Each structure stands twice: as structure tokens, then as C-alpha cells.
Amino acid sequence: MTKISVVVYGADVVCASCVNAPTSKDTFEWLQPLLKRKFPEHHFEFTYIDINKDKENLTDHDEQFIERIHEDELFYPLVTMNDEYVADGYIQTKQVTRFIDAHFEN
């Protein structure tokens, strides 16, 4: 069983470039059952980081992704798995499942 750490970076306010997209929290809550159901052979650990509020216990990876979001290089919500960029902005199922298939499936 492969352990996969899933982190969603987001904010309470919907991203200005992501009109009609789900909120960051909605994305975080949607990903959990989706990944557990689609990939039962993996163990997922989920974390949500508010890019405007969470300041403690952040790794260097977390701080770099948050900085890139604040500098408009990336959009939120942003999803990483095991500290690797997966997708940002309007997150879609295919983006996430392709990443898992490419990186964690034998």
C-alpha cells in the first residue's frame, strides 16, 4: 500500500480567475472520497492549508507553493501529492487521476 500525502492549498475567497469553480474547501472535501474510492490500494493523508491564515508548521515546500500563489504564478486551490505539483485553479478529476496513474501505479 503506497502512502500518498495530498495537500490542498486554498483560501476562503474563491479565486478571481476561477469563476463558477468550486471553493478550495469544496475541492478538498470532494477529493477525499473520490481518491479513496478510485484508488483503494493506496493510503491517502489529506491536509488543507489556508494560504492566508496558516503560518505555523509549514514545510519549505508549503512556503514555496504559497509564495508562488501570492505572486500569481499559480492559482488556488492548488493540489500537491508527496510535495509534487498536481494541478491548480479549476481542479478536474482527470488531472488528479492521471497524476496518480503516472506516479504511483506499477
Description:
The protein is globular. 36% of the residues lie in helices and 25% in strands. It is built from three helices and four strands; from the N terminus they run βαβαββα. Pfam families: DUF1462. This is Disulfide oxidoreductase. InterPro entries: DUF1462, Thioredoxin-like_sf, YuzD-like_sp.
Keywords summarizing the entry:
106 residues; alpha+beta; four-stranded mixed sheet
Q: N-to-C terminal Cα separation, in Å?
A: 12 Å
Low-confidence parts: none
Shape assignment: globular
Proportion in β-strands:
25-35%
Number of helices: 3
- Overall average pLDDT: 91
Radius of gyration: 13 Å
Order of helices and strands: EHEHEEH
* Biggest sheet descriptor: 4 strands, mixed
- Secondary structure: helix percent: 25-40%
Neighbour order of strands in the largest sheet: 2-1-3-4
Overall SS class = alpha+beta
Q: How many β-strands, per DSSP?
A: 4
Pfam families: DUF1462 (PF07315)
Organism: Staphylococcus caprae
Protein name: Disulfide oxidoreductase
In short:
With 106 residues, the protein is of the alpha+beta class.
Describe how the helices and strands are arranged.
Blueprint lengths: L1 E9 L13 H15 L3 E9 L9 H11 L7 E4 L2 E5 L4 H12 L2
Parallel strand pairs: 1-2
Antiparallel strand pairs: 1-3, 3-4
Protein name: Disulfide oxidoreductase
InterPro entries: DUF1462, Thioredoxin-like_sf, YuzD-like_sp
Pfam families: DUF1462
